Each structure stands twice: as C-alpha cells, then as structure tokens.
C-alpha cells in the first residue's frame, strides 16, 4: 500500500480560501519516503496578514509562483493509486476536490486516512495531537511549521511511527480494533480489516509482557499477587537508624543522583519541623514559599515515620495535577535515594478508574451513542489497556465526547459486583485500593478525604497521621463535600441511562434479555419494566418544570463579577422564601412520590431476579440498574434537603448560565462555617496533621487559618506548631514591584473609558519593554474583554501576540502552552490563572495585577459568612475579605519567580495598596520584593533600567 501525505497552506477556510503552497510526501510499500514535492502557488488576491503571521508566507514568496493549473499538472500524477493521508485530512481534501474540479480533473476516488485518528488510537496518552507538539514529543525534525512541504514530511514521519506502533501490538488487540470499525463503511475500517488479514498470515506474533484475559490484552496481571514492600519477617530497617542518620544517608544519595543538588535551608527546616510534629503527635501549620521543595520536605519525614512506626501516613493534595506530579517526579526520585524499600501509592476517587466489566460489555454490545466518535474512543482505550498499569483516566487524552463515554465505563460503588465480578482480580480500582492497603504512604486528594469521612471511613485505609498540601483550599473543599451541589444534568443523565427510548437505556436492555430468557417470571418482570417507563418520563417532566421555575427566580441581568461571563447567582433565604415557593414545593413533592414509587417497584423486581438462580448473563445489568436506582434515591434526598431549607447553618443558592438557562442550573447548600466540623472530624481525631501551602499566613500571622479551620482548640491544648519558612529566593534582587500612584481607581467590575484607555496604554508600553512575556491578571471577565481588543490592536505593529482566556477558546493549559511557545506574547487571565500556573524562566518576565483580588461580596457564601461575623461583633471586611484577598494576591505574585534564576517585575495597578489602611497587609505579606511607587509615566523607563541591571533585556 502506497501513501501520499498531503498538506496545503491556504488563505482561508474551504469555500473562500485559495491554495498558496502545497506539500506532498510519498511513502512507498516498503515504508521508505521516496520523494517530497513542494511548491508555492500564486493566489488571485493578496495573502491576509494573519496567514503571513501564521505561515511566514508573504506576497513576495508567491508572486512568481506557478498558477494553480500548472501546479495541479505536477500534483495529479503523484496521486495515482495511493491512499491519501493528512493531518486533519478533511480540510486538505476539500481543497483538493475543489482544485481538481476547477482545473477540469475527475474527483479523487481513493481511500482517505487521517493521522489524527491514528495518533489517538496508537498513542492514547499524548497530551496534544497538534502537529507541532507531536513532532516535538516524537523527536521528529519539523523545521518550518505551517509550511506545506515541511508539514507533509513531518506528518509522513508521524504516520510511520503509528504504523510501527501498530506492528508492536498483539494480534488480539488488532482483532478488537478491526471489530470496532467494521460496521461502518469507513476507510479506517477498511485499513484495519486489511491489517488484520496481513497479521493473521504471520507466524510470529508480538506478545510482550501482556496478560490475555476474556479477549482483551492488558499490561497488568492479578493485583492479588502484589507483595508488600518489605517482608514482615524481616527486622524493621529503621530499628537502629536515627532520623539524623537517615537524613544524612538520603542527602548523600541525593548528591550522587542529582549532580546539581544542594541542600536548601528552608527545606531542611521543613523536614525537621514535619518530623517533630509527626513524632510528637502535634498539628503543624507551615508556610513554604515557591522553591522550598516542599514535596520532599514532607515526604521524607512521612516515609521515615510510617516505616518506623508501622502506621500509614496519608498525604492529601488539592489538585490531581499535584498528585500526578508526585507520582511521576518525586516518588521515583525517593525510590533511588531512600536506603530501604518502601511503597508510596496514589489513590484517587473511584470515578478515575476504568471498570473493565462495563468496558467489556460496552464494546461487545457496541453500546455507542455516536458510532464514529465512540468507536474511536473505544479503540484508544483498547490500545491503552496494553500500556496502562493504573487504569486511571488522567493518562488518557479523551477529546470531544470522550468524557461522556468515560462516564459510562468508570468504576463506581453502586454497580460493583465485588468478588463476584469476573474481572475482580484485574480490577484497577481494587488494585489501587490494595496498593494503598500495603503502602507506607498513601497520596490522595482533598475530595477523596472528605468522601471517605462521609462514607464512614470505608474508602481509605485507616490512618492517624495526615499531611495536607495546598491547604489553603481545605475550607472550600470541606464546604462543598459537607454540603451539597447538584446539577440539572446529573438528574437527566441518570434518567436517560435508565431509559432513553424503547431501544436505548439499561432497562430496555434488560427487557430485551428477559424476552429471550424464557423464564417463568420474565413476562411479569417485563410488565414491571413497562410500568416504570411512563413514571421515569413523569420524573423528567416534573424535574424540567421544577428547574424552569427555579431558574425563573433568577435575576435577569448577569453581574459578571460574581463569576465568569453570563453566570447568574441567586441566594435563597430560609426565613424569606420567594412568593411562588409553595408551588415549587408541590412539584418537589410530586417528584418525591414518583421517585419513591419507581425505586420501590424496581428494587423489588431486582431482588427477585437476584434470588432466582441462573440469571448470570443479566447479573451485570441488574447490578448497573440497581446502582442507577441508588442514584435516584440520593437525588430524591438531596432535592428534598435543598427545597426544605431547614438548616440555619447552611447557605442555599442557585447558579446558572444566562445562555443555557435552566439546563445549566445548579443547586447549592453549603455550611456557612466548617471549622467545628473540621475540628471534630480531623483535628480532634487524628494524632498529627501537617498543613502546608505557599500561602497560609496574612501579614506574617496564621490567625486567619487557625480560626477558619477550627484549630483554636489545638492552640489551647498546646498541640499546634506554626512555622513560616524563610524564602529560598533573593526577592530583593529577583523581583521589583511597581505601583503607579496616580492611576485612576475603579468602582464595580467594569472599568470606565478613562481607566480602560490608561490601562491599555500602560500595558502596551510595558509589554514592549519586556518584549511580551507578560501575564495580566484580572478579577472580572468583563474587564478582561474590555482590554483585549484595544490591547491587541496596540501591539499588532510590535509583533506581540495577545492571548485572552475565554476569548480565544481552548483550555487553560492550551493557552499557557501557546504563551510559553510564542516568542512574544501577553496572556490575559481571570480567576483560574491566579494560582497553579507554572511558567518558569524567560517566558514570563512581567506580571500585571489589575485589581486586588477581593471576592465579590455579593456571592451567597461570602454574604452568609459576613453575616455570621457581624453577629459575633467582628468586622467581616478585616476578618474575611482582606485575608482572603491577601492569600489570592500572594498566590498571584507567586507566578512570577519560580526558580533561583528568574527575574521579573510585578505591576499593581490598584492604588488601594498604598492609599488604604488595609493596603499594607497586601504588601507586608509578600516575601520581600523591592517595592517602589511612582507616576505612571515614570514606570516604563524604571522597568527598562531594572531589567538592564539584571542583564534581562
């Protein structure tokens, strides 16, 4: 089979664009690239500046180029008897067909394949399928991205990598892939069909170290064979090793392993303090700024404590990102430097693990909603099973509807058959649980920590010592988990999984199975199912009516400061219910009664089925349906709890998006103050809890965290240690903070014309002197949009790109990648960019903070907290708004200096930091940068001068 890999550069999209360059790489049957053809093409109109910016192709390049007809005379013979390939091939194919048509040739009739499909299937864990990014991760030289001949060659090399990867897969996997695509008459199906026939002829098949079970090839064997890290009959490796000796040995090995390793004062202090807290059963609040190396700061003492005492230490992070970073970076390093065997296990929420039983059922039955996309996702996962040892969805790059697919095959408690499941010994969730059971240190996340508390400690292994990283999020996560949050979609999704229409859904599937089973009760049970259908439709109608009416209570205008664009928020007060509330309660009551009836009928039927033997084929269906009935029961309880509004310590509110109306409705009920629950559930129960983060103190004091997390009792008992670590960086030399003292101020979330003009002008001047490399943090999305267009215009002539969150489309991580990859750009971000963004080195030289990050005071939770403080005769602004804003401000500031070599500037455009009585808390809480305030027009010369002093220009 001969491939022709095609790429066009064009002046626009299909209907109106013209071809300006063509690239074609021919791959022969022996997989050698026999030729690469490239040519400019003369278009009928000038090339738009945007296209020149992207491709580097100018009008001069194409002025003497051949016309389309001449180029096609050379191209058409090369397309004889080939399989046409492209990266996102539909784009190039539509241009090819219209060019063939315009030049009087017959349309292309051959097969067409897309390298993006191949990449997804062969490399399901790649973080990006974009040509440039893939070339980098494969080490493919791609000299001139967005130039057709270079793109065609890079695409050809990537296709060859995919074909090599397919060669290494076992025959069984190829058979499964071929089955997935054989239904549709697609070219992908044709390709896998041919590949399968070829492979079946070969005598030697690659098998690798795979396990073959029930027609799937897996990278793992049985988890029951996993042994603990040390033999229980051996002596404890720490019997005669003091902590000091252990640390000396570890440091020596660190120096051998990492040539540039040097011990850091802050990290050494942290290691000692964490060890003291764990050994003396005390709680510890420890603030460790960027660059401390806090992961090792708590993991080294945690491992020592755990192995020495034989008791687990639990570590909890806020983000899954940090959990994965510990798994990929820190634990492999510790395995090399700790002088005895130990085990650290990652344990996430159950929905992150694949349920092999559900997956097998789904692909065998081809239970797909959108065949093309679902087949592709299933194919990705079949190949991923031959690579993954954890079955964790974070390893997969599931685009488009992949997330919906995952939800139907994720592990969950209610549909788990436990030991009765044929997949039990291979199960990823039970493997993770078993690994956590035998591990010394278990790394989980805040959500799972609270889910475990709510489930009566059934989810995590027992522990007495706990380290909480990113602890400034603990209060928020606690509120979410100890309260409730329910989406409109959650209910409709559960209902449609049970019954979408007479052919789709779990109940129709069960009814179909009953009809063919011929058991006596089959017709009786089918009758029950038939009676449940109309009830489910009634529930859906009632729920839609209820959410419509709840949505109609929302204020019409959207105040963008309460959240992102179009977000609507309404607080409901138990003592002051809306006028129509009785009508809404009647709907909730009807909903409750119908649900109760469905659950009663359904459970009775499922129990009868379980009691009757020989129902093995419907076992898994019965389990899944029973799980969905449990979901309905929990929906019933939650809606009743919300509509009852009976608890004075809970804040009730609604949120929705103005564009999606009631379909986007969410119900929230969150405790106003979680400190007493945290005290009772954690600080009173556990022997030692270490809380760490880069931002725990306000104005060098921990009181805000102590009050909010319920640590006052520990202070009285003398069980709380607090430590503020010295900064590892030389902030006075590395960071300059400037405040333009004559800058206009802003009221509300929207800037007036004068403010916006001055801000755009100042940002543009600063961006020119820092050559882009600038992150601008906003507190409101509205203001970001006000600045985006005029700033973009101001910087076009300087060749500095402006990227705006929510304006460009694309996720946060994509925007950050684009920012890092481009030589000169300015990135505008709102709330989610204030923390967790890591852009070390030259890519970020300047950070601009437009407003101090106060939370909107009209958010229901903030309002209720303020009322509670007022009732206690405290000042909500100083006790709540200022400390919260200071912590976010410190998080924002922390984006700038990420390594000991970074130098940078922070501009604070909010003059309240120097004019107001509370401004000093913001500035004194920072780790000591050089601070200067000046007139706006003196700022840019000062920045230029400071950058030159440090040799950054």
Q: At the fourth CATH level, what is the homologous superfamily of the largest domain?
A: P-loop containing nucleotide triphosphate hydrolases
| First-residue to last-residue Cα separation | 54 Å
- Name the poorly predicted regions: 558-565
Helicity, as a percent range: 40-55%
* CATH-level-2 architecture of the largest domain: 3-Layer(aba) Sandwich
Which fold does the CATH topology of the largest domain refer to? Rossmann fold
Radius of gyration: 31 Å
Total number of domains: 4
Keywords for this structure?
DNA binding; alpha/beta; Nucleotidyltransferase, domain 5; hydrolase activity, acting on acid anhydrides, in phosphorus-containing anhydrides; Rossmann fold; 36 helices; 25 strands; 5'-3' DNA helicase activity; seven-stranded parallel beta sheet; about 950 residues
Q: How would you describe the overall organization of this protein?
A:
- The chain is an alpha/beta fold and 953 residues long.
- The chain has four domains: 3-167, Nucleotidyltransferase, domain 5 (2-Layer Sandwich), CATH 3.30.420; 243-342 and 675-724, Rossmann fold (3-Layer(aba) Sandwich); 485-674, no CATH class; 731-949, 3-Layer(aba) Sandwich (Rossmann fold).
- The strands form five sheets. Strands 10-11-9-12-17-8-18 form a seven-stranded parallel β-sheet, with helices on both faces. It has a seven-stranded parallel β-sheet with strand order 21-22-20-23-24-19-25, sandwiched between helices.
- It catalyses: ATP + H2O = ADP + phosphate + H(+).
């Amino acid at each position: 089979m001969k491939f022709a890999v095609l790429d066009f550069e064009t002046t626009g999209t299909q209907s109106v664009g013209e071809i300006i360059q063509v690239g074609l790489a021919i791959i022969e049957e022996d997989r050698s690239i026999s030729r690469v053809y490239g040519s400019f093409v003369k278009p009928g109109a000038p090339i738009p500046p945007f296209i020149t910016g992207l491709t580097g192709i100018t009008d001069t390049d194409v002025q003497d180029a051949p016309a389309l007809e001449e180029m096609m005379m050379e191209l058409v013979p090369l397309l004889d008897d080939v399989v046409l390939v492209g990266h996102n091939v539909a784009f190039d194919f539509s241009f090819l067909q219209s060019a063939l048509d315009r030049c009087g040739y017959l349309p292309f009739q051959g097969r067409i394949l897309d390298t993006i499909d191949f990449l997804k299937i062969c490399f399901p864990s790649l973080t990006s399928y974009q040509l440039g990014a893939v070339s980098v991760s494969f080490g493919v030289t791609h000299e001139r991205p967005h130039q057709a001949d270079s793109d065609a060659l890079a695409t050809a090399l990537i296709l060859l990598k995919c074909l090599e990867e397919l060669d290494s897969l076992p025959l069984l996997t190829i058979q499964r892939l071929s089955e997935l695509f054989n239904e549709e008459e697609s070219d992908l199906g044709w390709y896998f069909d041919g590949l399968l026939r070829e492979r079946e002829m070969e005598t030697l098949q690659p098998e690798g170290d795979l396990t073959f079970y029930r027609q799937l090839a897996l990278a793992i064997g049985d988890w029951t064979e996993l042994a603990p890290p040390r033999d229980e009959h051996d002596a404890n490796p720490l019997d005669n090793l003091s902590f000091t000796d252990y640390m000396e040995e570890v440091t020596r090995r660190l120096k051998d392993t990492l040539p540039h390793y040097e011990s850091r004062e802050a990290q050494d202090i942290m290691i000692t303090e964490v060890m003291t807290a764990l050994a003396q059963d005390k709680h510890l609040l420890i603030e460790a700024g960027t660059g401390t190396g806090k992961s090792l700061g708590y993991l080294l003492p945690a491992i020592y404590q755990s192995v020495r005492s034989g008791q687990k230490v639990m570590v909890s992070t806020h983000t899954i990102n940090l959990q994965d970073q510990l798994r990929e970076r820190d634990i492999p390093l510790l395995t090399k430097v700790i002088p005895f065997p130990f085990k650290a296990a990652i344990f996430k929420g159950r929905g992150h693990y694949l349920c092999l039983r559900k997956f097998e059922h789904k692909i065998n039955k081809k239970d797909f909603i959108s065949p093309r996309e679902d087949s592709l996702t299933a194919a990705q996962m079949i190949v991923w099973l031959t690579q993954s040892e954890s079955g964790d969805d974070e390893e997969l790059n599931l685009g488009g509807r992949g997330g919906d697919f995952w939800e139907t095959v994720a592990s969950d408690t209610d549909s788990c058959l436990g030991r009765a499941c044929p997949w039990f010994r291979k199960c990823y969730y039970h493997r993770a649980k078993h690994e956590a059971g035998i591990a010394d240190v278990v790394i989980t996340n805040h959500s799972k920590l609270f889910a475990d508390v709510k489930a009566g400690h059934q989810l995590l292994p027992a522990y007495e010592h706990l380290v909480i990283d990113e602890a400034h999020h603990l209060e928020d996560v606690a509120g979410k988990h100890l309260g409730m949050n329910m989406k409109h979609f959650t209910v409709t999704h559960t209902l449609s999984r049970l019954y979408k229409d007479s052919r789709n859904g779990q109940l129709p599937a069960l009814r179909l199975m009953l009809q063919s089973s011929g058991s006596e009760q089959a017709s009786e049970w089918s009758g029950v199912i038939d009676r449940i259908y109309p009830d489910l439709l009634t529930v859906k109608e009632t729920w839609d009516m209820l959410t419509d009416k709840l949505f109609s209570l929302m204020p019409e205008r959207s105040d963008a400061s309460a959240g992102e664009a179009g977000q609507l928020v309404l607080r409901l007060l138990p003592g002051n219910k809306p006028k129509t509330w009785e009508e809404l309660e009647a709907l909730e009551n009807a909903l409750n009664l119908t649900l109760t009836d469905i659950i009663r009928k359904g459970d009775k039927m499922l129990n009868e089925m379980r009691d009757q033997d020989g129902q093995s084929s419907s076992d898994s269906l019965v389990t899944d349906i029973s799980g969905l009935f449990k979901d309905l029961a929990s929906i019933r309880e939650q809606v009743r709890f919300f509509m009852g509004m009976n608890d004075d310590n809970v804040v009730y509110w609604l949120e929705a998006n103005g564009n999606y109306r009631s379909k986007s409705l969410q119900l929230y009920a969150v405790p106003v103050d979680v400190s007493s629950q945290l005290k009772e559930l954690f600080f009173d129960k556990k022997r030692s809890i270490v809380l760490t983060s880069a931002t725990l103190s306000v104005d060098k004091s921990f009181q805000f965290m102590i009050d909010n997390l319920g640590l006052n009792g520990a202070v009285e008992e003398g069980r709380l240690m607090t430590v503020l670590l010295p900064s590892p960086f030389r902030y006075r030399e590395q960071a300059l903070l400037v405040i333009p003292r004559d800058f206009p101020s802003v009221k509300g979330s929207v800037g007036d014309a004068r403010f916006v003009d001055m801000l755009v002008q100042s940002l543009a001047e600063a961006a020119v002197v820092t050559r882009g490399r600038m992150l601008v943090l906003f507190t409101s999305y509205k203001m970001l949009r006000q600045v985006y267009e005029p700033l973009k215009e101001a910087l076009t002539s300087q060749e500095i790109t402006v990227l705006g969150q929510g304006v460009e489309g694309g996720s946060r991580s994509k925007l950050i990648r684009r920012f890092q990859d481009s030589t000169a750009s300015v990135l505008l971000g709102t709330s989610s960019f204030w923390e967790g963004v890591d852009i070390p080195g030259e890519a970020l030289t300047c950070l601009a903070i437009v407003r101090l990050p106060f939370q909107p005071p009209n958010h229901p939770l903030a309002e209720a907290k303020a009322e509670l403080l007022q009732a206690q005769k405290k000042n909500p602004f100083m006790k709540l708004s200022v400390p919260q804003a200071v912590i976010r401000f410190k998080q924002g500031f922390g984006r700038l200096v990420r390594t000991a070599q970074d130098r940078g500037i922070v501009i604070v455009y909010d003059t309240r930091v120097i004019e107001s009585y509370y401004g000093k808390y913001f500035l004194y809480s920072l780790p000591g940068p050089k601070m200067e305030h000046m007139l706006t027009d003196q700022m840019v010369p000062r920045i230029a001068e400071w950058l030159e002093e440090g040799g950054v220009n």
